[in-house]
Amino acid sequence: MALSFQERPTSAAVPPGEAPEPSIGDLVSEIGQDLSRLVRDEIELAKAEVKQESVKAGKAAGMLGGAGYAAHVVALLGSLTVVFALGNVMNLAWAALIVTVLWAVVGGVLYSAGRKRLRTVNLKPEQTVETLKEDAKWARHPTS
């Protein structure tokens, strides 16, 4: 007697207490979900790393901007004071030149300090790159 489509068993009989073997479709679906979750997690990690480094860069740039503004105000007001004070001892032109050189040195020191701080900023998401390398290694050799 032939079984109709609805009467045919859909899977082999499984002994009690054992889970049925997943089908190829289930495995492919699970791999797709795992890969999707992995990609989302890696993107979130990269975003967090880039945000952290961007904050450092923003602070360094703010410090450079603040130093520039402060140097400008001090240079304007202080320079006038020193030029006129030195003008009592020497020609006003020489006094202005001495003050200009002094502020050039101060500006160079501020620039050097800001540039040094910017060099510590690393926008490459190191942690993400490492985990991606590990993931690729695992994908090539899942048993190791």
Overview of this protein structure:
The protein has 144 residues and is mainly alpha-helical. It has one domain (24-129). 74% of the residues lie in helices and 0% in strands. The protein contains 3 helices and no strands. It has helices at residues 24-86, 92-119, 126-140. It is rod-shaped, with a radius of gyration of 35 Å. The two termini are 51 Å apart. The mean pLDDT is 82.
Question: Mean pLDDT score, rounded?
Answer: 82
Rounded to an integer in angstroms, the radius of gyration calculated over CA atoms is 35 Å
Helices, by number, come to 3
Question: What sequence of helices (H) and strands (E) makes up the elements?
Answer: HHH
Share of β-strand residues: under 5%
The tally of domains stands at 1
Amino-to-carboxy terminus distance: 51 Å
How many strands, which pairing sense, and closed or not: the largest β-sheet?
Answer: none
Structural category: mainly alpha
Low-confidence stretches: none
Compute the number of strand runs.
0
Fraction of residues in H or I helices:
over 70%
Anisotropy-based shape = rod-shaped
What's a quick, concise take on this entry?
It holds the Pfam family Phage_holin_3_6. By secondary structure, this protein is mainly alpha-helical. The chain has helices at residues 24-86, 92-119, 126-140.
